[in-house]
Amino acid sequence: MSVSHPAIEIDHLSCAFRRSEALHDVTLSIPTGCVFGLVGLNGAGKTTLIRHLIGGLRPRTGRVRVLGEDPTQTPESVMQHVGYVAEEDVLPRWMRVGELIDFMRALYRNWDDQLCDKLLEQFSLDRSTKLADMSKGGRARAGLLVALAHRPQLLILDEPSYGLDPIARQDILEAVVRTASDEGRTVLFSSHLLDEVSRVCDTVGVIGGGRLLEVIATEQLPERYCEVVGELSIDDLAQRELPGFFGWQNRGREWSVAVDRRAYPDEATLRREIGGELVHEVRPLSLERWFSARVNDRELATIPRTPAVEELSA
Ligand SMILES: Nc1ncnc2c1ncn2[C@@H]1O[C@H](COP(=O)(O)OP(=O)(O)OP(=O)(O)O)[C@@H](O)[C@H]1O
């Protein structure tokens, strides 16, 4: 397969289940070699988006390309180069680890026995263990092993650490990083856990109510945005419709707001605009605060909306 195209291309993808819209006009391009974190609250649309990538759902509106191909037209060819770990614990429990490996090995032309043995050791897995007798974390490791051992060009992990203990999570993270560091590999990783997303991903996209709200390189976050924390009078501040403000939060007597730094030439101007005496601190925006600001500000309005502010100060 040629690598001149992005690993994942999604154009204006929408999806509805009966009358309820799960994805709304999603456009996203993930270049080869990127480790991309897809974050969103429960029901945001992460799994629905991923199901389109693995050919499990056919787009009714919009277009999806994975490694340059339509995953619903040529699923065998696309999935030869994709490693996928589902959100649910779906491995056949009647199999032993060795049987699962033999089964998957027969499916993938690029299966790498040496890598498989290495991962068995690294994940402390034994070929003779029955999947039914393993912990959830053990089965997650087995799922990751078979997704990695054919050296996929694209690794898609749907909530890989959901419900896992920190040690199992660490294994998964390490495997993701190693896979990504292999030349030219791409990883799409959906997660609720922002700390692991910030550790592993170079780019992050936030999805809310089926809309892709923003995509940003994690290293760009502190230079693009800051968080301003200050003393009450939030109503007064909100009425002034300052540009670049989003995701207001009230914490006791303090308020916090995310600010797009591009709306202000420097921090002194920003403080002056707010009214310096109201500002306690201007600090880089953390991934966690960016996430909460975006999901609480779906329209990406540049000005705070009065009803939201009233709710906050109630
Ligand atoms: N097969 C389906 N039939 C009907 N509604 C569905 C179906 N699959 C998903 N949905 C709905 O689509 C929306 C998005 O669901 P999705 O599973 O993609 O979210 P998610 O971000 O993966 O959530 P979670 O983090 O809880 O797994 C939800 O409102 C969900 O109820």
Explain the overall architecture.
Helix content is 33%, strand content 28%. Strand 1 (8-17) and strand 2 form a beta hairpin. It is built from twelve helices and 13 strands. Residues 298-314 have low confidence and may be disordered. Helix 4 packs antiparallel against helix 5 (136-148) and helix 5 runs parallel beside helix 6. It has helices spanning 46-53, 75-79, 97-107, 113-122, 136-148, 166-181, 194-200, 221-224, 234-239, 267-274, 287-295, 306-313; strands at 8-17, 20-30, 35-39, 61-66, 82-85, 154-158, 186-191, 203-208, 211-217, 225-231, 245-251, 254-260, 279-284. Bound molecules: adenosine-5'-triphosphate. The site of adenosine-5'-triphosphate has 12 residues, from strand 2 and helix 1. Adenosine-5'-triphosphate binds next to strand 2 and helix 1.
Features:
2 domains, about 35% helix, four-stranded antiparallel beta sheet, 13 strands, 12 helices, alpha/beta, six-stranded mixed beta sheet, binds adenosine-5'-triphosphate, Rossmann fold, disordered C terminus, Alpha-Beta Plaits, single chain, about 325 residues
